[in-house]
Amino acid sequence: MMDNWIKKDLKHIWHPYTQMKECAKYPPILIEKAKGIKLYDNKGNFYYDTISSWWCNVHGHNHPRITAAIKEQLDSLDHVLLAGFTHKPAIRLAEKLIALAPGKLSRVFYSDNGSTAVEVALKLSFQYWRNVGREKKNKFVSLSMGYHGDTIGTMSVSGIDLFNKTFASLFFSSLKAPSPYCYRCPIGKNIDTCNTDCVIPLEKILKEHSRAISAIILEPLLLAAGGMVVYPKRYLQEAARLAKKFDVHLIIDEVATGFGRTGKFFSVEHAGIEPDFMCLSKGITAGYLPLAATLTTERIYRAFYADFSRNKTFYHGHTYTANPISCSAALASLEVFKEEKTLEEMQKKIPLFHGLMERFRALPFVGDVRYIGFVAAAELVKDKKSKKPFGLRERVGLKVYEKALKEQLILRPLGNIVYFFLPLCVKEKEIKEVVNRAYSVIDSL
Predict the structure, then answer these.
(1) CATH 3.90.1150.10 fits 4-59+341-443, yes or no
(2) How far is it, in rounded angstroms, from Cα 39 to Cα 271?
(3) SS3 for 404?
(4) Cβ contacts of 94 within 8 Å, gap of 6 or more
(5) What are the CA-CA distances from residue 42 to residues 31, 211, 247 (Å)?
(6) Residues near 177 by Cβ (< 8 Å), separated by ≥ 6?
């Protein structure tokens, strides 16, 4: 019998990425509390939060340090507009983000979610070229399997797939380069003998269209929603080199990869590159509250710094820009990184995690296994030799999801991609438990 709360939910709430008709058979689970990497429902069951509540939880749920910071902030200032006013949490957080950021990033523009962080970068890049008198540079280059958000602008620079193809006629045109997807190489090369030749199509686009290109936008080393595709750092380094060579901006989307996910604080650190823009959200508040930031350089900032009459102002903003409570949560999260030596502790556990993932390769329906930091994925295929994927109607991801719940795991496959996005606080014992249970789920297929 359906719980009364669930009945009310289905009467009023429209859930994201959900065909609501299916909720009659697969109703949402009512979560009442959380601690560490576990979520507890109203029936006393617990589930391992193996995907960090959509990639945002960092230090585990209900961390006392972050909870206390939020409560303390509530006693003094809840919210104030950031136009004409400011507050200490926003100032302190900007200062700390800049200190952690790579290269010459020196300015922070706050917003409230990943899509808006990217949207800000796109608009800043576009207006920069107008402000310096080069209006023809108005197009963007992105990857065919990239994902940067669900607003019209961010969908325009994402790959067109099941999630967004309905809206394709609304998109502005952008240039697409093949994705560096080693398992299904777009140019038919073998990873053992390839010299990152998949960057050649990107170079060709830049060579032919650089006078019209504003920026390249990339997720660094991990195409997340595109299928948890982990690609070589050499590709990212080459893309950064080409951006400089052809005088286009490099926008790095660290919304999913930032704040330790890949084993470095920011994923670009693996490649040692310096972007013109870096977009942050998700883990910025450790998964507590909405907040986002777009970081850029002094060079970009100075192109907007002028007398009001010259009309170079960036007219963009959000109601909850730099909300003081969200900023306080973010500051507390940065303190937890320091106090608990989060990144150092991760390095001890990453080899265990990756080693356990290697076992999946032997399973009959697993075509590829890939990982970076505390993110890993197993790509399910119908035939290993031909790499033929399961069809959409076969709903293999749904089967995994259902079986995983019985094993107390929250797995939400991306089509045929079963993935982990573990909270950074996960213990060795929990890694073993989670991965072994997931192995049993896939083996049972």
Answers:
(1) yes
(2) 35
(3) helix
(4) 108, 110, 293
(5) 6, 58, 56
(6) 141, 142, 143, 144, 201, 202, 205
**Structural contact between residues 58 and 36, judged by C-beta atoms closer than 8 angstroms:** no
Burial of residue 268 (CB within 10 Å: 0-12, 13-18, 19+) is buried
By CB neighbour count within 10 A (0-12 exposed, 13-18 middle, 19+ buried), where does 350 fall?
middle
Report the CATH fold assignment for 68-338. Answer: Aspartate Aminotransferase; domain 2 (3.40.640)
Q: Whats the size of the chain, residue-wise?
A: 445
Q: Hey, which bits of 116-208 come out as E strands?
A: 139-143, 175-177
Q: Give pLDDT, residue 191.
A: 79
Would you state the pLDDT for residue 1? 66
CA distance 346 to 368: 24
What does the block give as tokens for 73? 């902030």
CB 222 within 8 A of CB 375: yes
Residue 360 phi/psi, 5-degree rounding, is -65, -25
The helix or strand, by DSSP H or E, that contains position 91, with its residue range, turns out to be helix 88-100
Q: How large is the average pLDDT for residues 378-386?
A: 96
Beta bridge partners, 229, equal 223
Rounded Cα distance, 388 and 383, in Å: 5
- C-beta contacts of 125-130 below 8 A and 24+ residues apart: 125/214, 125/215, 125/249, 125/251, 125/276, 125/277, 125/300, 126/214, 127/304, 127/312, 127/314, 128/214, 128/249, 128/300, 128/303, 128/304, 129/214
Q: Whole-angstrom Cα distance, residue 409 to residue 38?
A: 9
Q: 39 vs 42, 53, 233, 243, 400, CA distance in Å?
A: 10, 10, 35, 43, 19
Residues 405-438 pLDDT 10s: 999 999 999 999 999 999 999 999 999 999 999 9
Integer Cα distance of 97 and 106 in angstroms: 9
In angstroms, the CA 120 to CA 406 distance is: 42
Q: How much is the pTM?
A: 0.97
Structure-token pair, residue 440: 């049993």
